[in-house]
Automatic annotation (TrEMBL), chain A:
Entry keyword annotation includes Transport: yes
Family: Belongs to the bacterial solute-binding protein 1 family.
Name of the protein: Extracellular solute-binding protein
Keywords recorded for this protein, A-Z: Signal, Transport
Highest taxon listed in the record's lineage: Bacteria
Keyword Secreted belongs to the record: no
TrEMBL record, chain B:
Coiled-coil segments on the chain, per record: 367-394, 447-474
Catalytic activity entry: ATP + protein L-histidine = ADP + protein N-phospho-L-histidine
Ranges annotated as spanning the membrane: 282-301
PANTHER family xref list: PTHR43065:SF47, SENSOR HISTIDINE KINASE (PTHR43065)
Protein's recorded name: histidine kinase
Amino acid sequence: MQFASYGYIAHNQLVVKAGGNLKEILLRFIVLLCGVLASAGVCNATQLNVWHMVKEMDADLAHTAAAFSRANPDINVVVHALPNEELKASAIRAADQQMAPDIIIISSDNVGYAGLMRLSELPPEWVGDTLPDAVQQALQFNQKNYSLPLFSGNHLLMLYNKALVNTPATDWQQLVVQQQEFNQQGIQTLALNYQEPYWFALFASLFGADLVTNNQVSLGSAEMAKALQFYQQLAEQNITQKQCGYACVADDFYQRKYAYAINGTWALAEAKRHLGDDLGIMPFPTLQQHKMQPLASYIVMVFPNQALSSAKAAQIKQFVHFIRQAENLQPLAKKYYLTPYYHTPTPEPWLTEPFHLQVQAQNRLSTLMPASTAMVSVWNGMQKGMLLHQKNTLDATAAASFMQKVALRDQQLLEAGQ
Amino acid sequence: MKIAKLSLKNLLILQFVLSATLPTLLLSGLLISEFQNIQTEEQIKKQSAQTEKAKLQLEFELEKFALQLQQLAVDSNAALAASSGIFAHNARNSLLQIAQNHQLAKAVLLVDKTQWIVEAVPVEAMVVPLTPLQPHLEALFAEDYAATNQTIFMSSVELSKQLLANSAPAAQPLAEIIVMQIPLKLADTAVTDPRSRLTGAIVALLPLQNIKTMLENYSPDTTLQNIYWQGRGLITDAKPSSDMMVTQVELHVPNLPLALTVEFATTRAAALGAITALTYRYALITGLFLILLLLAGWLFVRAEVKPITALNRMVEGYADGDLQQPKQQFPFTEFDQIAGVLHTMALKLKEHQDLLERRVAQRTSQLQQAVVELNQINAELLKTQQQLVESEKLSQIGILVAGVSREISDPISQSLAAVNTIQQQHLEIAQAVKHSTLKRSAFDHYLRESKLSIEQLSRNLQRAEELIQSFKAVAVDQSSEQRRNFNLYDYLQQVILSLRYELSRYNVKVDIKGDKVMVLQSYPGTFSRVLTNLVLNTLQHGFDSSVAQHISISYSLLPDGQLQLVYRDDGAGMAKPVLKRIFEPFFTTAQQDGGSGLGMSIVYNLITQQLKGSIDAESEPGKGASFTMTLPVRVVIKPR
């Protein structure tokens, strides 16, 4: 499962893109085919197209959709998973070409693209009365509600293998000491999706570097430069490796090649399946009492190309109502260690399980990403700046400035195009 | 001229080896030369084919690359990325895909209309300076929707250096860059028209250094010598050589109006490597073959030369006199025949030898007898000669003694007369005293007469004394050959004085000319004997007593320190036959007058042997004779 807004995609960009394109083509082919068949009277059910970025949850969502279609034979729901970046670009392009899907399940920070995706504003009955400020900022764009939350708790976690780690490190210095022991055992220390800015953002928080301030990108700070240097040192000290990607934080960690791993909540189910009771969740190590704060988001449903005003609005609402029922959300939440989001509080007895409690404890330490043009604009610049610093093309200060320069331009372009 | 002696054995081995190898070597040399020519032609063909293939391969890569860039430009993600950061990720993936498929470009950029680098692969290219590209991009963007793909050939040291920063270092990297610019357009239709919107461009930077490297990889067997753009060589450190085979190909780059000319070269040494290796292998095999031939030749020749050696030993035996050795048998008929002939010859030679030995023994006996007789005759001759020499010596001594007697008799006689007179007067005075008849006048007469007698006596005795001293000196020098100092002038005067008697029988005037002070250290007796013999020879053979004659003796020191003594007379002279034989012993023209024929021979011997000098005689009948003697002397007192 992948809930991060940006972080997941880059580890296998080419494969994912190729797969995404193929699926998109197939999807369009099915839509076209159904249109032809409908005109012939063979296929006369209304089809709802659902794109989502939660690859790990694809089968479960398809299962839910199938259940809905069985209950509503006149509505055929087609669920299709797309990598996050591909999903965003395709959704914007499709909205522009009047070929957008009806529903998109995406992380809440991407609501910052509301204008480009031509998102439908939610009807009042779907919107909660009172929301905390942080949640409001995460779900609303320009004080308007475009996203319907399904789950909360989408953020990074510090995982470790209990079979390899006796005492989890509480600060980075301990981790450096432990690294020598791991090396002697032929074990790598920390699996980190090194070149992904979503992971790097965690280390930016360690030095107090804000990515966004007052809906303006703020990447060019001295704290950001320090974070870059610290990040570089991790690789230089071989605590982690520059080439370590998503396969590293997932497969290699599961194969016990790494003692620690930083990965998202979406990967917990898979990790648990591989490591069983050896899987441990721990607080992020501190650095001179400074804590790391992962960036968190909601998993939300959005409705591109003004779908809620389209001819299929009723069917869309039917499906939304169906999926938001506790009997449908709860199994998914439980399986993927997420917290379901309802209008009304619902008792969740399983949330008392220790593993869930640990996840929720981490969740409380995370920072919700606002749904803003600034927030969605930081990632491109951050990644370019990181890579240029990692390649020693720019020093840390210049790299941070470069990040800011690119992100600012992206934000300006985005706002100009909203 | 000395001729170096050759060994037949070595000559035969040489002949054997040369006969076997020389044709092979000549033929092989010819073939290798032909191979080299063929290989050169083949290499040129191969190089042309390879370079053509390399060129086509690279052109294909360039075409493919350009095509993929065009395809990317058609992808709306790229066009959108130029206007929005949302699509940057997709565009980057596309760029990465192209970059992974092609190594030609060192950087592929996605640039928007403000010349902002939206995406770049590799990521380091995000910060490359676009200043050198600025005019080209401006020109492209100025065309807006009508812009077409462009390829530009430009030079920028800074940009090239930055692009090649992560490449393998080259000695002098090329500064030229091929820039492919593909415009990015957004259009609702497939047709580009004024409704289309130009959003930016894909810019691919292909350093010429990179293209050079690829061409070199595609043509591994040849060397890329230079790349020419509009006739200008871009590789400045290229080293052309006359010993190279050069081929040129035209490299066409998509959308570049002019082609690049690429020059490949291969050194002849590299091209002929195979032939050279073959030659070395051949040389090795030939060397081994030659060794085998030498061994075989040595064995053959040894077998052939062995009977010659035996024959040689046999002939040496004959040469050493072993003519009776038994006849040997040889494996070859020819040698057997020669041995038979030699054996027969040896037997015959033995017979002749025996006969000859007998004759020689007989002749030797006769010769020995003759030698004994000859020795006897010779001894007698020597004895006779000695007697004659002694006789001559006695004769000369006799002459000397006679001269002495003659010279001394007069003063002695006068002295005796004076003594007689004194005695007579003494008796008269004594009688007068005894008888007391002495008168004063008688006594005074006695005193006057005795005084005169005493004076006469004294004068004559002194005269005799002088004569005796003179003869004594000459006689002593003649009889003893002691080296001593003497005044030459005085000594010559004394010798002439000793001959005064002989000279007195002729009307002769003797002149001695020379330095009167000079004292020599030599053998004065020898000088005396020489001069005496010359004077006697002149008197006996050259002078007529009725005619006034003249003898001239002169001497002087030559520049080399030798003494030249010239004796000259104006006598009858000699004819040439006489002159030629004048120094021969016993040669005389006055045998009937008692001449011994030894005088001039003695002179010659004294001059040449005793005084270590030389003597020359000159004479013509009627013109007197002249003897010039050149003598090495030690001068004690130098002449004035």
